[in-house]
């Protein structure tokens, strides 16, 4: 590990009491997975979601940092709402990742853009958010409908489980477009998806009006908004992971609980990272819209 002095506290504390996993188990997972996870954190402001007493304890969010070890990098960003500079932490190396874990950060929440082009995301996201009345089989059906729309648009999308109840589909933007352009484009894709599954999906933001449908959420595409990183653990029963998948794996029978603190390091020891393309070359939004208009 990086040559820094990192003091780990309470490694035996139960973080997932029902499953028996401890803070040590979490640290062990992130040590095994750090080389795979760090590219998705590098140079991105990090919004901390801390669970210092495990998944059943109180949690809280933290963005601003005043007292950090001198080896941890930060980046100041002006906040219009609070009218001050927010000192965001940057997770640039394994030691910083473990520092976050030690603070109780079970899951990781990087910005969609880096400090080099904060107004232009590297990817856009369609978040498939089911109601309590939806099954995961219906989430799978919806993800495959999104895939059909992407194929019609002639673009690649990358999918992962949320690690909770839904799925996330990422589209490479490469810092080429603004957040507003990314949002409007994903909104268009969601309209096409809803046309395919009108009885199962909704774009209604208000919970009371959604009903028992899967929400096609394009509003994750905002500056400063975060979503759980690829391969991140979740503060959920069974210590599930937000797991990137082959599209061929998105089929009936897929379960969120197939990917956990125990199974994912073994899976990744045998296969390459499927999500690398998310950080690669941007889609051509204009060309994609033209193809959709020609349907």
From TrEMBL:
Organism of derivation: Cyclobacterium qasimii M12-11B
This protein's UniProt keywords: Ligase
One MF term in the entry's GO annotations: DNA ligase (ATP) activity
Enzyme class, first EC level, given as a word: ligase
Xref: CDD domains: LigD_Pol_like_2
NCBIfam families: ligD_pol (TIGR02778)
Protein's recorded name: ATP-dependent DNA ligase clustered with Ku protein, LigD
EC identifiers of the protein: 6.5.1.1
DNA ligase D polymerase domain span: 22-275
Pfam families linked: LigD_Prim-Pol (PF21686)
Top-rank taxon, per record: Bacteria
């Amino acid at each position: 590990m990086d040559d820094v002095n990192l003091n780990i506290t309470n490694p035996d504390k139960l973080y997932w009491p029902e499953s028996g996993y401890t803070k040590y188990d979490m640290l062990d997972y992130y040590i095994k997975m750090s080389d795979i996870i760090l590219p998705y954190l590098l140079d991105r402001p990090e919004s901390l979601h801390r669970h210092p007493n495990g998944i059943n304890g109180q949690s809280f969010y933290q963005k601003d940092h005043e007292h950090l070890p001198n080896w941890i990098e930060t980046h100041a960003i002006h906040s219009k709402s609070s009218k001050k500079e927010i000192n965001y932490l940057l997770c640039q190396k394994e030691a910083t990742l473990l520092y976050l874990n030690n603070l109780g950060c079970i899951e990781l929440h990087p910005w969609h853009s880096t400090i080099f082009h904060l107004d232009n995301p590297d990817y856009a996201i369609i978040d498939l958010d089911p109601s309590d009345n939806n099954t995961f089989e219906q989430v799978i059906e919806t993800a495959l409908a999104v895939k059909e729309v992407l194929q019609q648009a002639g673009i690649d999308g990358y999918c992962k489980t949320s690690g909770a109840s839904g799925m996330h589909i990422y589209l490479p933007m490469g810092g080429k477009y603004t957040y507003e352009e990314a949002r409007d484009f994903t909104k268009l894709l969601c309209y096409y998806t809803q046309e395919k599954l009108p009885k199962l999906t909704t774009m209604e933001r208000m919970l009371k009006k959604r009903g028992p449908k899967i929400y096609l959420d394009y509003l994750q595409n905002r500056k400063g908004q975060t979503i759980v990183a690829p391969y991140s653990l979740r503060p959920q029963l069974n210590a599930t992971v937000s797991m990137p998948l082959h599209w061929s794996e998105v089929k009936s029978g897929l379960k969120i609980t197939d990917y956990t603190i125990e199974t994912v390091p073994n899976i990744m020891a045998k296969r390459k990272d499927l999500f690398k393309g998310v950080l690669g070359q941007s889609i051509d939004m204009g060309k994609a819209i033209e193809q959709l208009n020609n349907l």
